[in-house]
């Protein structure tokens, strides 16, 4: 039986455990543990020496702290320009005035995800350059698919959900195992960014619909 501890000081941990093992061995019927079982306490250094530690392993260990840092950083991220992004929201509200509140709520959520995606991008660039290169490659694939979908549709705004599905599918291949809890937020953020930067005008598309 191996026990992992994140600190080790003399016999303060090991001695009470070994005393308990001796006591339980006498009382045990041996249904789950054999009588000759031994207890080994493994500290941080032993664990590091036993298993290879690479960039991905370190990232998994720090995932929770990393995600908390991203969420906090996202709150202070300033979006450089949202003019086209807001303009497309106004176009939707003109076309669907009865859904104005829903559109406003959607755009607010997209902006939140946009900030999250930017914070994630900045943090990877600063701390995990290899993963940042993967992110840049994924972004290129997302842009290509989204532009092709938008260009082929007479109503690009109706493709937002499909675009997000594309982005999620692409990002999950490299980031789901490490950052699965925020992949959908990142996908929404990437699509929000593309809505703001996409050169395909929604007014022109609406005129042909």
Short account of what is shown:
With 209 residues, the protein is mostly helical.
Number of H/I helices: 10
- The helix fraction, in percent, is over 70%
Query: Widest sheet: strand order?
Result: 1-2
Query: End-to-end span in angstroms?
Result: 68 Å
| Structural class based on helices, strands and sheet pairing | mainly alpha
SSE ordering: EHEHHHHHHHHH
- The radius of gyration computed from the alpha-carbon positions, rounded to a whole number of angstroms, is 26 Å
**What summary fits the major beta sheet?**
2 strands, parallel
Relative strand content = under 5%
For the secondary structure, the number of strands is 2
The coarse overall form would be elongated
Low-confidence runs: 204-209
Mean pLDDT: 84
Describe the secondary-structure layout.
Elements: E1 2-4, H1 14-27, E2 40-42, H2 44-50, H3 55-61, H4 63-74, H5 83-95, H6 100-127, H7 129-152, H8 160-179, H9 183-197, H10 202-208
Parallel strand pairs: 1-2
Helix pairs in contact: 4-6, 5-6, 5-9, 6-7, 6-9, 7-8, 8-9
């Amino acid at each position: 039986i191996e026990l992992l501890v994140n600190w080790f000081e003399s016999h303060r941990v090991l001695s009470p455990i070994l005393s308990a093992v001796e006591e339980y061995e006498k009382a045990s019927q041996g249904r789950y543990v054999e009588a000759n079982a031994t207890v080994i306490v493994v500290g941080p250094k032993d664990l590091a020496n036993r298993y290879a530690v690479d960039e991905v392993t370190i990232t998994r260990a720090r995932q929770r702290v990393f995600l908390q840092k991203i969420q906090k950083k996202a709150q202070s991220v300033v979006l450089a320009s949202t003019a086209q992004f807001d303009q497309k929201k106004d176009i939707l509200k003109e076309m669907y005035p009865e859904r104005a509140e829903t559109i406003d709520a959607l755009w607010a959520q997209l902006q939140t995800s946009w900030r999250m995606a930017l914070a994630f991008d900045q943090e990877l660039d600063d701390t995990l350059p290899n993963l940042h290169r993967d992110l840049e490659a994924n972004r290129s694939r997302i842009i290509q698919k989204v532009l092709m979908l938008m260009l082929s549709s007479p109503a690009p705004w109706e493709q937002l959900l499909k675009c997000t599905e594309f982005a999620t599918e692409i990002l999950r291949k490299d980031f789901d195992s490490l950052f699965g809890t925020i992949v959908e937020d990142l996908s929404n953020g990437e699509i929000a960014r593309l809505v703001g930067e996409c050169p395909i005008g929604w007014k022109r598309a609406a005129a042909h619909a």
